[in-house]
Amino acid sequence: MGTWTSLMEKITPAVKTAGMDLLIVFAHICLAVFALVVGLYISRAVNTYIKKVLNKIDFDNRASKIGINEMCVRFGFGKSPTYVIAFVLSWVVMIVAIIYAAKALNLNEVQVLLSRFLAFLPTIFISLFILFAGLVFGKFIGKIIENSSKANNLPGGVAVARAVETPRPGELAKWLASRCADLTAVLPQGRWAGGSGEIDALWLAGSAVARVGVAGLNPADEKALVAWLEDPARPKAMHAAKGPLEAFADHGWHLAGLVMDTELAAYLLAPDQRSFALEALTEQYLGRPIASGQGDTLQATLDFGDTGDDGAADRVVAILDLAEVLAASLRSDGQAGLLADLELPVQRVLAGMERVGVAADAAVWQRLRDDLDDAVITAEKAAFGIVGHEFNLSSPKQLQAILFDDLKMPKTKKTKVGYTTDAAALEALYATTEHPFLAQLLAHRDNIKLRQIVDALMRAIADDRRIHTTYIQTAAATGRLSSADPNLQNIPIRSDTGRRVREGFVAGSGYELLLSADYSQIEMCVMAHVSGDPALSEAYRSGVDCHTVTTARD
What we know:
Distance between the termini: 102 Å
Structural class: alpha/beta
CATH architecture of the largest domain: 2-Layer Sandwich
Shape: extended
Strand content: 5-15%
Strand order of the largest sheet: 1-4-3-2-5-6
Number of helices: 19
């Protein structure tokens, strides 16, 4: 018994010390959690302030003009590095506050606890730093491995790196035969718009990369290049090929063997995607960035081509790598035939349509514009006469005062600056009140809109007296085409004046007439074909309205 008592007397101080150490560890954990929570709130204010300060600094290098978050994201520290700063600051602030509180309350035990805590503090900070550095380093290595995996595990074993070579004069045919026998990416440099263009150089990427300047080619090399371009047995890939096809035509070249357009392929895979620019697709599918170039066709914009060599080698390689990846995805989704049998042939048709253009009679539109000028002035004077004074019909603020204060009309939808005066609201208001002022106001707006359309059409008439619009295949998720520069799809037809706009489009020299064609009930026709329904099929053959047939069957 005495031995046991003696043993317990020896063990008890050790147990008490261990218990105190456990209490200190528990206090560390509690303080750390509390500091982290406080740090999350403090970091917002710190982050906002630091970004405001840095963004006010004028850096000589524009690329360096970024906030603290963007800087740390580039180095792999995450989107909110100020959380780390706030975390450390919170610890320091709380320790100092507890020390002063303990002294003020003469709490000796708390001071002893803090002294032990402070003894552990350097070790804790070093451990946190090592842990943080390890996470950052691991993230950095993981990103390298991820990008390497995406780049080197492409279908067909395509590697990112390519040797850039310069074929010697007179040896281009040999170089094309050895380097571009299989799928080859083509990146034209030049200018193209309005159905025509000019090619300055071609970047080619097969088993090697080369820039072939068009202007400096000798006859033998030019013949070899044209023969390769026009060889359907040499598969080629491009990005947004329609514009370059028109430029090739101006050189007298016919591009054959185009089996992949990466813009169209990406559109088929994700038609509702916002952008099909080459740099966006490379980041999305290959996981690597490339320099932005002018050679990508964006939605509703003209394509003026690549004009410099900076990054062109990376871009043409990206087209080749994308071609492999997108081709595999199309095969997996069962859409490879849609690209080959529909989109690529339609692209050539659209290129031909843009080159030919639509003939226009400028005299018809000039007379219409003069009439619209008179109509705008007439509606304006009539509106002033009804109100009793002149004002700016295009000013929403002045118009609100006239409508709702002077004329006491019913209020329209409330907005931040008063009440809406858009076209839909005014038309609804006129349907309710039939006020003569609204009739003149709507006529004024309609005539101004028609005049703007006529002005845009007249500006678009080229030297050949034709309008060469740009047709876009990748703008609508539904697969419908769109038109830009100018938009030929918003030509009005419901009003007499709107129909006069269409009179400016003529057959043109060498043509007899303009043919207007439209599918009638195309969705029902497709359904009849796919379903094989005898009644629907017979309705289309006999010309009976299909809706009448389906209603009668119900």
